[in-house]
Amino acid sequence: MYLDQIVDSILKGLNQQLSSMKYNTIDSFMRVIIIYSLVPILGIKGYIIMLYVGTIFNASLSINRLIVVSEVRFRLYEWVVLPVISIVISCVFTRVLFICPVVLCMLVVTSIYILLLFIFRCITKRDIRWMRQVFARSNIK
């Protein structure tokens, strides 16, 4: 839901309000059909299915439009596959080797995840320089 809202806002900022409105209208129509057909049969489960299906559908259309409009080359392996592998490894590693309070486990998982992002080169020195420049500019008043 958060990703969908952010992408919709970016599309609106890129003068793609019509596309955003079209996707939201299609999404609303699809949600009404799902509610009408699944909620009487499945109850709250049908409603939850509608939330997932509608949000994923709308976000997928919006992300696709954003990629087309911004002309960004989407690197699935580097931006999705390797980070997902990293988080799975860090969670499994922490779960198997550490018995600790929740907050400590969260810190361990996060540390291992960031380390794996560097090892898999999902985050590079160039990315670090870019982030420093962004934060340096944001501190200037």
Structural notes for this entry:
- The protein is mostly helical and 141 residues long.
- 85% of the residues lie in helices and 0% in strands.
- The chain is built from six helices and no strands.
- Helix 1 runs antiparallel to helix 2 (17-42), helix 2 (17-42) packs antiparallel against helix 3 and helix 4 (76-97) packs antiparallel against helix 5.
- The longest helix is centred in the middle third of the chain and has 27 residues, at 44-70.
- It is flat, with a radius of gyration of 20 Å.
- The two termini are 33 Å apart.
Offer a quick outline of the entry:
The chain is mostly helical. 85% of the residues lie in helices and 0% in strands. The chain is built from six helices and no strands.
Low-confidence runs (pLDDT<50, min 5 residues)? none
> What general outline do the C-alpha atoms trace?
flat
What is the CA-CA span between the terminal residues?
Answer: 33 Å
Biggest sheet layout: none
Subunit organisation of the chains: single chain
Total beta-strand segments: 0
Proportion of residues in β-strands: under 5%
What pattern of helices and strands is seen along the backbone? HHHHHH
Helix/sheet category = mainly alpha
Q: Roughly how many Å is the radius of gyration?
A: 20 Å
Task: Give helix % range.
Answer: over 70%
- Per DSSP, the total helix count is 6
On the 0 to 100 scale, the average pLDDT is: 90
List the helices and strands and how they pair.
Elements: H1 2-13, H2 17-42, H3 44-70, H4 76-97, H5 102-119, H6 125-139
Question: Which tags fit this structure?
Answer:
single chain, 141 residues, mainly alpha, 6 helices, flat
